Structure prediction request, 245 residues.
Amino acid sequence: MPDFEQLLVILTLVSGVIWVIDRFRRRRRAADARVSWWFDLGRSLFPVILIVLIIRSFVIEPFRIPSGSMLPTLEVGDFILVNKFGYGLRLPVAHELIVPVGDPSRGDVAVFRYPEDPSQDYIKRIVGLPGDTVSYVDKRLIINGEPLEVERLGAWRGDDAFNLLREQLGGDWHEMLVHRSPDDRQLSLTVPEGEYFVMGDNRDRSSDSRFWGTVPRDHLVGQAFFVWLSWNGGPNWSRMGDVIQ
Prediction:
């Protein structure tokens, strides 16, 4: 069963062939000659499908947040936009890099294809770049031997089980959640070349690089930058239009 991207490519190719055939046949048939409805539909939809494919493949792609692993930055039901241009232009379906544009930065909220099952899209925050030594000890992130600066903001929405904190990563501040339980997955590793270490902002409720390893560069889809809709049983007006930090 093809996924949406594959289906979009197939529709573009089929409608494109119909459009080309129509351009050649139009010269030979009478202006009032009738054509079948499916042929007419194919040639009419080709420009629209092509534009959608170009925008979705090379510029911006929408995603929906299915879990709470990125709380408080992203909530279940957030519909976000992802900038695909910033990490380089890749061919649809094949995902081969054709135009290098830029590299991910520490602190980016990135969508990527899950290394253990590339058919699934995940979203996490990039905390470690190629060559970085990343340590996570006592729920504190340490990059290249330097503990990140953290500020405590209090309980999360009145739930004493979770602490809301601010963390400075890549020169910018972002909020995160830490559970007050002593359970912790401590580690220390050097990020391989061409790969990235990612973590969820909901540190104790996230499946990320601490469990299944780093993300190869060619698995990165793009950087999340905008919440255009938030709907979880109803609209959350306060989140619509938020810039993702």
Observations:
- Residues 4-26 form the longest helix (23 residues).
- The mean pLDDT is 90.
